[in-house]
TrEMBL record:
UniProt similarity note: Belongs to the NnrE/AIBP family. In the N-terminal section; belongs to the NnrE/AIBP family.
Name this polypeptide is given: Bifunctional NAD(P)H-hydrate repair enzyme
Positions bound to AMP: 407-411, 436
HAMAP family, per database record: NADHX_dehydratase, NADHX_epimerase
The EC number(s) this enzyme carries: 4.2.1.136, 5.1.99.6
Positions annotated to bind K(+): 60, 127, 163
Biological role: Catalyzes the dehydration of the S-form of NAD(P)HX at the expense of ADP, which is converted to AMP. Together with NAD(P)HX epimerase, which catalyzes the epimerization of the S- and R-forms, the enzyme allows the repair of both epimers of NAD(P)HX, a damaged form of NAD(P)H that is a result of enzymatic or heat-dependent hydration.
Organism from which the protein derives: Pedobacter segetis
The UniProt record lists the keyword Signal: no
Amino acid sequence: MLKLLTAAQTKEADHYTVINEPIRSSELMERASKAFVKLFIEKLSDRKKKILIFCGKGNNGGDGLAIARLLIDEGYTFVKIFIAEISEKSTEDFELNLERLQLKDTSIFYFKTAEDIEYQECDILIDALLGSGLNKPLEKEWEKLVKKINKFSGYKIAVDVPTGMPCEGELFNDIIIKSDLTITFQRPKLNFLLPISSPYIKEWKVVNIGLDENYIQSTSSPYYWFWKGDVQNYIKARQPFEHKGMLGHALIIAGNDETMGAALISSEACVKCGAGLTSAMIPKTGLRALNARVPEAMFTNKEKLGNLDWDKFKVIGIGPGLGSNDDSLSLLKTVLKNFKNPMVIDADAINMIGENQDLLKSVPKNSVFTPHMKEFDRLFGTHDSWWKRIETALKKSVDHQIYIVLKNRYTMIFTPQGICYFNSSGSPAMASGGMGDALTGIITGMISQGYSIEKAVQLAVFSHGFAGEQLAQKMYVVPATSLIKNMPYILRELLVK
């Protein structure tokens, strides 16, 4: 797994690499610029495009100057450079790259105020003004400049991070370059993985610039990025003589008369991801639908709850479509009183616990909560920013010894050890009803098979997103039912050969 860094930690990794490789900082800048240009050429190979590059006088501007020189060397015929002299100071590496660029046949325009810049028509605009070192909101001439550049035509590419955006933490304001593509170095910035980045980054790509990976992995950051290569190591191949009784019995408690679809989706997802046995506790009105849709699942009658053999279940998933009336609350209390293994708690079950906070004390350790943003706030109080939610989730997961799966484009998994994993898989095409119900069933099914809770959650979250990602290559929207049908094939694809 890749550890994610703050801006300060990235700067330390730069310094460590320079000292210990060893390599001059200007050579590291050259390496970064070459990596940027390589990806640039892959995406925008037309050498006749009109390119404008806006540079500050710090190291981000130095990157911009090096990128300009390399693009010229690659045969791009129209590259015009604008250097903002709003700040008097310049870095040594900026000055070195300026000297190198001045040897080329290109146009360099210096300006001190935003008014000095007229509206520019271009095909591509590269933002290399301020980069990752920003620690305060932009104001005065910087603010005017960003507002003006955002009105320019052309496809906008940011170098490392859009000017005005901090790498982590709250945004200062909306004075940020709106990029079509951000090409960032070594790791995605934490803010790229949150919805707050959406107005300013349509797409981002990471390029490796050769920072010392051993040093990066040794940092104290609680944030990690996990991907296909990680979860592939988790999946267990089915063994000879293995049978359904060895792969766990899962109980899904879900659905109401008017929300039976949620119960069917979560039950089928549990079956399709490999639970040995799946029982569904649903209203009797849904029995015919269950038999038709998920014949592999067994019906469990909630009216016989008092005689239920709780010990036969490895895990319970509860909440999708359950409703939050008195009967549902009574059912939830009974489950919490009698079941001591980890549970997967979603949707209405989360909402009921949010309204009855004392129930949190009864939740078994290592249980998994799977809220979306609004459910999270109902459970832990209103938050006015994503960073405050992250802070709360890190604390609450440790305090209550639970896992929190905060669903998003890059779903976050918070652990009882105080770690936050960002999931790399998924697609906007998955934004449709029932996706959360499917995830609940998949997590429940993975836990039933004997994976550790942490691995089960990571495997479920990644495979759920990966299935949607694969289907999105052929489908405009990915319905939950289509994703579920694809799960056995996705898990087989992920299994290391």
